Every structure is written in structure tokens, then in C-alpha cells.
Amino acid sequence: MDDEVTCPPFESNPDIIASFVSDLTECERWKCADIFSLDAESEQYLPGKAVAIFLLYPMNTTAVERNGRSDSPDEEILQQVVFIKQKMKNSCGPVAVMHALCNVIKDETLATSTSWMHNFLKNCRKFTPDERGLYLSKDRMFNQLCQVYGNSGDSEPLESDVNVLLHFVCYVEVDKRLYRLDGRKSGPEYLGPVVGNSFFTTTMFHCKQFVDILLAEESSVEFNAMALCVVPS
Hints:
Elements: E1 2-6, H1 14-25, E2 30-35, E3 49-58, H2 62-67, H3 75-80, E4 88-89, H4 92-104, H5 116-124, H6 129-138, H7 140-150, E5 166-174, E6 177-181, E7 189-193, H8 199-215, E8 224-230
Parallel strand pairs: 1-4
Antiparallel strand pairs: 2-8, 3-5, 3-8, 5-6, 6-7
């Protein structure tokens, strides 16, 4: 990670995420909502169809690293899943959002032809994960939006160079397979098939497993989950 390029850390705030996504895509069909319980029943309270899940958790737990799978990228998976290496310090929130958008957007119904996101997908889909990360770290509009939304929210904004102990990851479905995408890693982590054609239920199962790993080391763990949703046009 290039520590010389920094980003104010994003607050785990659905309104901030939804506005950030809308600015990137020029599309109003995106919604974001907190997930208050890691149970399948939580899906009924979402504002639309969940297409990606964001999980925020503390990085200062060795249990997560011990239980992580191989960090060696699978070339076949890298051909199917768009992955981005995090190059800017504290940019795990924006990178998680980009992981979601890159793997969910298939046509102009979710990102207009004039949007920044459409241009990124057109230019960078064939890039390597490192090249995509470098592109984001140098793109003026992306960095301007990161500054705007990183300094928004209910809590007091943090300086870009502060060491933040909370980290965002993204869960997405690609070809009926579930992946966890973490910009600190070298590639996507395949978690297994999406069960029963339910992305949300399958993801909640894996999120609970992940949180249980955290709780095995700490009696109390600060974490938050949000769903990125799409509503009908």
C-alpha cells in the first residue's frame, strides 16, 4: 500500500455509501441499509434486492489472519471476478464499494454511459488488480469524492493519515459463487456456492462464521454490516 496517498476513512453510514455510489454511477436505483442482525430474516427489512454486503470489523485480531485462506491469487478466479488492490491508506471503504460495483454492474441500467463508473469499467476491466488500485489512487474525481464522503457523516472526521483499526470488506456473488473481497489481499477469497439461490442468506451464514472467529478471541467485538441494494427502475 502506498502510504503517501491517503484517504479520509469512511464512516459505516448507509446514507454516505448510497450517495457515493449514486455520484459514481449517476444512477438513483442504488440504496444502502444497515443490517441489524446477521440472520436471513433481516432481508425483509431491506429497501431493495441486496447485491453486495459490506462488513466492517477490527483488524487488530490475529484470529482473523490465522483463519484466513491462502492469499495466493487464483488466476481463473481473477478472470471472473474484478479485484482491486488497495493502494491508498484508509481507503478500504471506497475500495469495498468499487468491488461491489465492478462485479454487479452489467449494463447501463445501473451506471449511465456518461458516468465515472462506466468509464472506469470500460478502461480498467482488463487491468490487473494492482493497476486498478493505482488508477484509483491517481484519479482526480475519485479522490475528490473520497474526500467529500470521507469527511461526511455523524462522527467527527478523522485525518487521512490516522491509523484506523476498523476495516471494510465486500461480499459479492459472481456466477452463483460467493466471494469475499478484501483490498489488502492479493486476490478474491472464494467462500463457496450461493445456496438456494439466495445471496443474502448465504452471505449472512459466512458473515456469522467470520464474526464467530472474532469473538473466539475477544469477548466483545465492534462490527457493522450494510447491504447495497438495487430498486426497480
